[in-house]
Every structure is written in C-alpha cells, then in structure tokens.
Design brief:
alpha/beta, 8-stranded mixed beta sheet, Rossmann fold
Length: 181
C-alpha cells in the first residue's frame, strides 16, 4: 500500500493557487487513474482529516489524500493515515509546491529535510522521520526578483503560460510515478 498526499489549503479561495499545486497533482493522478483503474469516489474522512480515496494501480493499493488541515498542519492528516493503515514511511509520497524551483521544473527526492517548507516540516515532525519521498513541483519565477514576498507569491494563481508548463510537468511526473509502481 502506498500513500500519495498533496499539500495545499482546503478553502475554495486557495484553489488554483501556487501553494495548492500538491492538491492539483493529486486531482490529476485521480483523473488519469480513474480512466483505467478502480478508484472510489472522493470522500471527506474526519478520522484522517482529509479528502480521501482508495484504488488499485498495477495491483498496488493506492491511497490519494488531500489534507483538510491548512498547509502548516499537514502532518496531522498524514500521521493519522500512516498510523491507521500501518504504511511504512518509505511508501509515502508527498506532492508539494517549491518556490526555489522555477515553474516547469520538479525534483523527486527521498529522505530530505523540509528545506523550510512548513507543510513538509509538519509531516517530518509528526512522523518522526524524513524517510519519505517528496515530489517538489516548481512554482517560482526564473527571475527570483520578480517573485516579491514569498508568502504573497505562493497565494497567487498561475498565469496561462505557467498553467501550460504545469500541464506538461504533471504528465512527466505521472511517467516517473509509473516507474515507481
């Protein structure tokens, strides 16, 4: 069993913002796999404090989750799911926004620190380990000077060119995930 978690903020006003690219990636995976695989409908699960669905991909049981906590408390939802299903942390995949990568880039890393990302820091703190996979999806500008205040920047929506780059990035990440499964 593997857990794929997208980080973001649950309120509708954050939908489509840079900070919610983790949610968008989970939605993309769900829509791609729903065509070919057996996934339940999305449901809100109070025990896991998440929107949650379970399915099977290539014979492997997959949980897709979007925490209903705010970004900085993502660890509470991840910890609840990991503990309930007894998922080894090596089978946890966290999709997050990454301001230090330009839009259109991504990195997949295992056993790395939070690098200042509060949602990831919350997960590390509550799991007691950083031994999980992070899929860092670039949301930054090529010219870092144009980003301005990071906190404000991540809460802005993507422009058309960025959305097109992200469409391509999501497909490339899906291909990487297929290799992992």
């Amino acid at each position: 069993m593997k857990l794929f978690v997208g980080l973001g903020n649950p309120e509708q006003k954050y939908e489509g913002t840079r900070h919610n690219i983790g949610f968008a990636m989970i939605d993309f995976l769900y829509n791609e796999w729903l065509k070919k695989e057996n996934f339940d409908d999305w449901g809100k699960n109070k025990k896991f404090n998440s929107e949650f669905t379970v399915g099977t991909v290539n014979g492997e049981k997959i949980i897709l989750a979007k925490p209903l906590t705010f970004m900085n408390n993502s660890g509470t939802a991840v910890q609840a799911i990991v503990n309930y299903f007894k998922i080894p942390t090596k089978d946890v995949y966290v999709f997050q926004d990454e301001l230090d990568l330009k839009c259109g880039d991504y990195k997949i890393q295992f056993n790395k620190s939070s690098a200042g990302h509060n949602g990831v820091a919350s997960i590390i703190e509550l799991l007691g380990t950083q031994e999980f996979t992070r899929i860092r999806i670039g949301i930054g500008k090529e010219d870092k000077q144009k980003q301005g205040n990071g906190a404000d920047f991540v809460l802005n929506k993507f422009n058309l060119i960025e959305r097109m780059k992200l469409k391509d990035v999501k497909k490339r990440i899906l291909e990487e995930i297929k290799k992992l499964l």
